[in-house]
Design brief:
The protein is an alpha+beta fold. It has four helices and seven strands, in the order βαβααβββββα. A hairpin with a 2-residue loop joins β5 and β6.
């Protein structure tokens, strides 16, 4: 499946791209997506994940909904989903 990921602030600088189209296996979760970003820059997942949880400094939005209101990092992704990953300060 293909998922469109938008990265903001320092994340897009680390990835050298603002938008990415990632190919992920069917049934992938937000955590799987984040871990796959290590292939682009291994620093990105270390910024986003702290002790197995999303860092309090970042927000992940899937199709306009904060994953805190879904199933957190276990939120299942579907083909064509749009994911925004940004610092909370960027969203506020």
């Amino acid at each position: 499946m293909l998922v469109e990921v938008t990265l903001s602030a320092e994340l897009h600088e680390l990835a050298k791209a603002i938008k990415l189209i990632l190919s992920l296996p069917d049934g992938s979760t937000v955590m799987d997506l984040i871990m796959s970003l290590s292939g682009i820059n291994p620093v990105i997942p270390t910024l986003l994940i702290k002790d197995g949880k999303l860092s309090e400094n970042y927000v992940v939005i899937v199709n306009g909904r904060d994953i805190d209101w879904l199933d957190g990092l276990n939120t299942k992704l579907n083909d064509g989903d749009k994911v925004l990953i940004a610092p909370k300060a960027f969203i506020s």
